[in-house]
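Hi R.,

As promised on Friday, here is the backbone we talked about, encoded as structure tokens. Could you run it through your design pipeline when you get a chance and send me back a sequence?
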């Protein structure tokens, strides 16, 4: 079912509310705590998600809500709003404006609409099934990439890959760098990298260990700009995906990127038995 204009308008209001909640805390008193999984959470995370949930409770009471900070509220419509108030909390806590608020609308397990909002620089990408991705209201496109060698690859941190995953990532690094250290990956960025890819500034993003609220918003944005998002086996991302993701700006390079990733030693048995399970 195509995304309704009302849903797009609601997504913009959610992003506006999250930004209003976040901005007063940036480079200020953060009140940072460590969660059980040792990731940081701030007062800004909680304030932003609470602000979005208040709007959803009032305007879409039948829809489910799945948020990073306040868990899952069941719904009755088959639609779920997936919220990550600050994706890139580590960047936020050190004053780097490359974090983002992620908002997704998932229908029957499929991400149908997504927002990446950077509230400090006031940059917003929004993508929806069947529509072109917009950046601050204007359409954007991914860029052409003639070959994998020389492609610009980004990931948030090499430390986010587990021991089984490192060889895959390093095989992809070897393919894009062609042995030249200066052509190594761009590190840092979280969700901001996917916006940059949609706008034609990066070619590939490779990550692992992502939860639904980390990736659900990204797929409609990348795909609406002409790119592809998939898991490490090349399958589309759904609510059941394990959190090993690839974003590829030029779909013509998709097979080569997957081939490079799977050039890792022992890659023939990848994807069975050691993926992350975030679908709680």
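Update: got your reply. Pasting your designed sequence below so it's all in one thread:
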């Amino acid at each position: 079912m195509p995304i309704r204009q009302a849903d797009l308008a609601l997504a913009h209001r959610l992003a506006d509310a999250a930004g209003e909640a976040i901005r007063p805390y940036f480079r200020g008193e953060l009140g940072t705590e460590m969660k059980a999984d040792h990731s940081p959470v701030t007062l800004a995370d909680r304030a932003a998600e609470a602000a979005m949930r208040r709007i959803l409770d009032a305007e879409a009471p039948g829809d489910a809500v799945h948020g990073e900070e306040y868990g899952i509220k069941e719904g009755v419509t088959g639609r779920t709003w997936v919220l990550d108030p600050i994706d890139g909390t580590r960047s936020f806590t050190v004053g780097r404006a490359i974090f983002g608020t992620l908002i997704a609308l998932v229908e029957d397990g499929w991400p149908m609409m997504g927002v990446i909002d950077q509230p400090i620089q006031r940059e917003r990408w929004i993508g929806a099934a069947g529509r072109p991705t917009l950046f601050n209201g204007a359409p954007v496109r991914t860029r052409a990439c003639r070959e994998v060698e020389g492609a610009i690859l980004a990931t948030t941190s090499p430390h986010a890959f587990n021991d089984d995953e490192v060889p895959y990532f390093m095989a992809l690094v070897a393919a894009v760098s062609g042995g030249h250290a200066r052509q190594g990956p761009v590190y840092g960025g979280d969700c901001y990298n996917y916006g940059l890819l949609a706008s034609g500034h990066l070619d590939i993003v490779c990550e692992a260990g992502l939860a639904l609220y980390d990736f659900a918003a990204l797929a409609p944005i990348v795909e609406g700009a002409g790119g592809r998002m998939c898991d490490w086996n090349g399958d589309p991302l759904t609510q059941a995906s394990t959190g090993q993701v690839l974003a590829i700006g030029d779909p013509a390079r998709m097979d080569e990127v997957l081939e490079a990733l799977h050039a890792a030693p022992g890659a023939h048995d990848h994807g069975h038995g050691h993926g992350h399970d975030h679908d709680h």
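One thing I noticed while checking it: The radius of gyration is 18 Å.

Thanks again,
M.
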